Q: What sequence folds into this?
C-alpha cells in the first residue's frame, strides 16, 4: 500500500498494489448478438482495451445462434461500440487491435457440436489458457450452457491449465427455490469460486464508494446507528417505461427486477458492519448477515409496509398481458433487527415511468433535543441528512442548519462533493470494472450463492403477500408514483 500527496493538500492512499490484476483470458460471450452484449459488454471491453486494462493477449469469442460471417460480426460490434461506449466514438488504432482479437462461433445453446468447435478454438496454440464464459443470455439458458460447457470439458477443473470462470447476469432465478436450483445446477459444473453473479449496481463507482466512504472516514461511523439515524431511504427511480422488455418484465415486476438485487445490495452496503478485511468473503459475509437480520414478516405486515403501483398505459405495452397485475413501482419498509439498526426504518423504493431519474440514498439523522432551536422550531427545523447520489450528478451532500445573516432565522444548507469535475477524466462504466474483476478473479463485487437466496427470501414473502391482495395502485406516467409514496418524507408513512 502506498500513501502520499496527490496535489496540494489532498492526501491519497493507493490500494491498487493490493488489487488482483486482470489475467489474459479468452472471453466467450454467449448471446453475443443480443442487446446486453451490444450495449454493455462489448463497449466495456472496448474501453478496457482503450485504457490498457485488457491484457493484450486476450481474445474474445462471440457465441450466438445467428448466422453471421466474421466480417459481419466485427462490423456490427464496431457500430455498437461507437454508439454505446461512453466515449461515443472509436479510436481507430485501439479498435482495429481489438477487432483482430474477435471471432465468432455460431450455435444454439444446446448444440454439442458448437461446444466442440468452441473447445477446439480455445485449445488453439498461442491463446491464453484462461477462459471466462459470460452468459449474456436469457436466464433459462444459464443452466443449459453451464452443462454443455462442462460436457465439452470446459467446466471448472483443477487439471485445466488456466481458470474457467462463469459470469452470469441477472435475474438469478425468479424466487428462492429457483435460485437455489440454479445455484445447484451451476455448482455441478463450476466451483463456487469460479461463479461470478452480476449485479451491475455493485460495479458503479458511487456504489463501490459506499465501502470507502463508510470505512475510510472516522466522522460518520460513530453516527451510523440507531442512536443517531432516524431513517434511511434508498431510491432507484426511472423516467422510462418498460420499452420493449414486456416479455420479461411482465413476469418479473419491479420487486423481482430491481428490489431483490440493486436495492437490497444498496441496503446491505449501508447497513453492514465493517468487514474484518477487504477480501471478498469478509465483505460478502457481512452483507449476508444484514439480510439474515431482516426478519420474516407476516403477509399482513408486508401489506402495511409496502406499496405496489402500475403506471397507466402499462397494460398496453408490447407483450404485456391486457389485465396484467404486474407492478412497475414497489416500495417497501424494512428493519434490520440487529444491535446497530433495530427500530430504524429502511425505505426501499423503485419505479418506472416516474417524474424523476435518480438513484440515491438518504440517511436522515435525528433532530437535536427539543430545547433551544428544535424547541422553538419543532418540525420546521430540518434534520441533518446525508445524501449519497448514485446517479446522475454522482456525489455526496451533507445537509445542516446555519444562521441566516441579518435575521434570527435557521436555514438549511448543504456541503456538496461532486464526483464529476472538469479534471475527472476516467469514470468507468460498471461493466468495465466487473469484467476486469472477473478476469482478475476478484469476486468482491459479485453476488455469492447464499446472498442471492437470502435476498429472494425477502422478495418471495412480499410477492406472496401481494398475490393475496388487490391489484396494484394505478399512477399516471410521469408523476412521482402512487400517492402514498410522494417524495416528501412525511408523506412516506407506508413506504
Ligand atoms: C436493470 C433492470 O437491472 O437495471 C432494468 O433490469 C433497469 O429494468 C436497470 O432499468 C437500471 O440500471 P441503471 O444502471 O440504468 O440504473
A:
Amino acid at each position: 500500500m502506498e500513501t502520499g500527496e496527490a496535489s496540494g493538500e489532498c492526501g491519497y492512499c493507493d490500494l491498487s498494489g493490493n488489487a488482483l490484476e486482470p489475467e489474459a483470458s479468452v472471453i466467450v460471450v454467449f448471446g453475443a448478438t443480443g442487446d446486453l452484449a451490444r450495449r454493455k459488454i462489448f463497449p466495456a471491453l472496448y474501453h478496457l482495451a482503450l485504457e490498457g486494462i485488457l491484457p493484450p493477449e486476450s481474445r474474445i469469442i462471440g457465441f450466438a445462434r445467428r448466422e453471421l460471417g466474421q466480417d459481419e460480426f466485427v462490423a456490427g460490434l464496431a457500430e455498437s461500440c461507437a454508439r454505446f461506449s461512453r466515449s461515443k466514438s472509436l479510436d481507430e488504432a485501439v479498435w482495429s487491435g481489438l477487432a483482430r482479437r474477435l471471432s465468432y462461433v455460431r450455435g444454439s445453446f444446446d448444440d454439442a457440436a458448437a461446444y466442440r468447435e468452441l473447445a477446439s478454438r480455445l485449445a488453439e496454440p498461442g491463446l491464453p489458457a484462461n477462459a471466462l464464459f459470460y452468459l449474456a443470455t436469457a436466464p433459462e439458458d444459464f443452466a443449459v450452457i453451464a452443462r454443455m460447457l462442462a460436457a465439452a470439458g470446459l467446466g471448472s477443473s483443477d487439471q485445466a491449465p488456466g481458470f474457467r470462470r462463469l459470469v452470469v447476469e441477472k435475474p438469478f432465478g425468479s424466487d428462492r427455490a429457483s435460485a437455489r436450483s440454479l445455484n445447484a445446477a451451476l455448482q455441478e459444473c463450476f466451483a463456487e469460486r469460479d461463479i461470478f453473479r452480476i449485479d451491475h449496481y455493485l460495479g458503479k463507482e458511487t456504489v463501490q464508494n459506499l465501502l470507502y466512504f463508510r470505512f475510510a472516514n472516522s466522522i460518520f461511523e460513530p453516527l451510523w446507528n440507531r442512536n443517531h439515524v432516524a431513517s434511511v431511504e434508498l431510491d432507484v427511480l426511472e423516467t422510462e417505461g418498460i420499452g420493449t422488455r414486456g416479455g420479461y418484465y411482465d413476469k418479473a415486476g419491479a420487486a423481482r427486477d430491481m428490489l431483490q438485487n440493486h436495492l437490497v445490495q444498496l441496503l446491505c452496503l449501508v447497513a453492514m458492519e465493517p468487514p474484518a478485511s477487504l477480501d471478498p468473503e469478509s465483505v460478502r459475509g457481512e452483507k449476508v448477515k444484514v439480510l439474515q437480520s431482516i426478519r420474516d414478516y407476516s403477509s399482513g405486515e408486508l401489506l402495511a409496509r409496502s406499496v405496489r403501483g402500475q403506471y397507466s398505459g402499462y397494460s398496453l405495452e408490447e407483450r404485456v398481458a391486457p389485465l396484467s397485475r404486474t407492478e412497475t413501482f414497489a416500495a417497501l419498509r424494512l428493519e434490520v433487527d440487529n444491535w446497530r439498526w433495530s427500530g430504524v426504518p429502511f425505505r426501499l423504493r423503485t419505479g418506472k415511468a416516474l417524474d424523476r431519474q435518480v438513484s440515491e440514498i438518504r440517511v436522515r439523522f435525528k433532530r437535536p433535543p427539543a430545547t433551544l432551536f428544535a424547541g422553538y422550531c419543532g418540525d420546521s427545523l430540518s434534520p441533518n441528512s446525508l445524501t449519497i447520489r448514485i446517479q446522475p450528478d454522482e456525489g455526496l451532500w451533507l445537509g445542516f442548519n446555519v444562521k441566516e445573516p441579518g435575521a434570527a432565522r435557521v436555514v438549511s444548507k448543504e456541503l456538496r462533493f461532486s464526483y464529476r469535475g472538469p479534471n475527472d477524466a476516467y469514470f468507468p462504466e460498471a461493466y468495465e470494472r466487473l469484467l476486469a474483476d472477473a478476469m482478475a478473479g476478484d469476486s468482491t463485487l459479485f453476488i455469492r450463492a447464499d446472498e442471492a437466496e437470502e435476498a429472494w427470501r425477502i422478495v418471495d414473502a412480499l410477492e406472496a403477500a401481494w398475490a393475496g391482495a388487490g391489484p396494484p395502485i394505478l399512477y399516471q406516467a410521469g408523476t412521482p408514483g402512487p400517492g402514498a409514496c410522494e417524495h416528501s418524507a412525511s408523506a412516506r408513512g407506508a413506504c
About this structure: DSSP finds 13 helices and 17 strands in the chain. The first helix runs from residue 35 to 50.
